[in-house]
């Protein structure tokens, strides 16, 4: 094989992201509410090692990621309000769907009830919530706006605000989207912690009026103070990542936290990736076998790892077995086309 042809194409990285998140989600879904000891008792000393057969069901993480993707495709990158109108429609379709039975998060359900009652997206989010629902679904934003950091930040935050109002949720969604954008641009994950630290100043200084005044609802003096609190909590979680990688505990959540909140979910995902950045299967297995929010940890880790490594790094049998595989393929290709259009405009 010609070495020049062995490098994955950009489309392969988009597919890698979509299949990566869905496969990670499907691997972690059966262990989501189990302790580490319960996982070992049920699946053996290695924990859950293979994707369930014959069809591996994913959770609300993948459902909501596809909803974000559908909103991006429908709005076509025109402007934030068009995207948020489309996202409102997609979330309400998800909320009413008979397939919305995959342990959806309480915050997203309550926010959708607000949307259904007519409350607009800038104020529909639950102000005290920083659950990982804000960043488990943000990967499509990182793909589409990978080359436009200001737009990426704006869209990632807005996609969080609609359901989650705590500053840590917004910041974690923003940073998760940036990680996906770096991954799809083939930047090594070994650089991510330093790159994240470099984002903070610009992030805290950026608050477009289109995002509304959720900071005031949270009783902060201004957007900067609001965002600074989110960054403080994210830093505290990320500071535990090197220790988790170095010590490699059987249950990484003992060091990093359970991942039920946004900043811990990202930190756990990065700990999985940094332990073996070139091994997709090892990354999502690590994410799925822990005492925390295993489907979200493995999904976020899988999205970033898949975007970085490309779709062929994901075992073929897993790609064939995961639910919604044609939809994942179609969304990846259509988002790639949209990204190329937006980048050339």
Walk me through the structure:
With about 350 residues, this protein is mainly α. The chain has 19 helices and no strands. The longest helix is centred in the last third of the chain and has 20 residues, at about 325-345. It has helices at about 10-30, 35-45, 60-75, 80-95, 105-115, 120-125, 140-145, 150-160, 165-185, 190-205, 215, 225-240, 240-245, 255, 260-275, 280-290, 295-310, 315-320, 325-345. The two termini are about 35 Å apart.
Describe the SSE topology.
Blueprint lengths: L9 H19 L7 H8 L16 H16 L4 H17 L9 H11 L4 H4 L14 H6 L4 H13 L5 H18 L7 H13 L9 H4 L5 H16 L2 H7 L5 H4 L5 H14 L4 H9 L5 H16 L6 H6 L3 H20 L1
Helix pairs in contact: 1-16, 1-17, 1-19, 3-4, 3-19, 4-5, 4-8, 8-9, 9-10, 9-12, 9-17, 10-12, 12-15, 13-15, 15-16, 15-17, 16-17
| Total count of domains | 1
What is the CA-based Rg, rounded? 18 Å
Order of helices and strands: HHHHHHHHHHHHHHHHHHH
The CATH homologous superfamily name equals ADP-ribosylation/Crystallin J1
CATH topology: ADP-ribosylglycohydrolase fold
Low-confidence stretches: 1-5
Distance between the termini: 35 Å
Helix content: 55-70%
Give the count of helical stretches.
19
Helix-and-strand structural type: mainly alpha
CATH class: Mainly Alpha
Mean pLDDT: 96
> Judging from the principal axes of the Cα atoms, what is the shape?
globular
